[in-house]
Amino acid sequence: MSLLARLAPHLPYVRRYARALTGDQTTGDHYVRVALEALAAGERTLEANLTPRVALYHVFHAIWCSSGAQLETPRDEDSGDDDTTRRLMRIAPRSRQAFLLTALEGFTPTEAAQILDSDFAEVEQLIAEAQTEIDAELATDVLIIEDEPVIAADIEALVKELGHTVVDIAATRTEAVDAVARKTPGLVLADIQLADGSSGIDAVKDILARYNVPVIFITAFPERLLTGERPEPTFLITKPFQPETVKAAIGQALFFHPRRASKQAA
User: For the whole model, what pTM was predicted?
Assistant: First the structure.
């Protein structure tokens, strides 16, 4: 199989990553092109012990770290960048790389370590550092939709630990809608099966019909959302959950969600 055929399925994703890493599509595409030219000329090779996708990102990083990363300068707040780009570019480069590889590109920490010529422990530390910066900057009001008091208390503790404020805990669809009417949250954490037999899915639909907020589903019934019959949620955590999984999802949901604004007319 030719080099192009092997890499073609992965090029849109490495372009996405390069754009997020550099803060600019033109710049990102330039470094992707340089990496491909280096491969075509035999100046760089794909590591045989890595999957093609991991190997491609590894080559891209070798090119980026030898040139582009050395030229990076702080971004001006008035540069015209969108909110996500400005937030990304404020994160230290190495932490930004680890965060984007795992949060945006879906690599495991082990794969990210291979790409960055690092080790698992360092990547975990870099991700944690990025997460701390994100949490501090994006503190917001959180609505929890959960009918089990013990689970709701656990989630509330995690949310507060990250510096966010829990504005309400709703156990039913009606309570959730009423809570949002009183105060619009910046994030919703929702179970699916609620106390009175109502649905957290329906509660979220009601909320999103009026407000543009990120949602994370935390449920013991993920199959109800993974039907293929409707757009599936970006953030879906299965119970029983690991605290670090919830923390990471909160940071990612807030970081990558577009500027939050009400869908209601002013």
Answer: 0.67
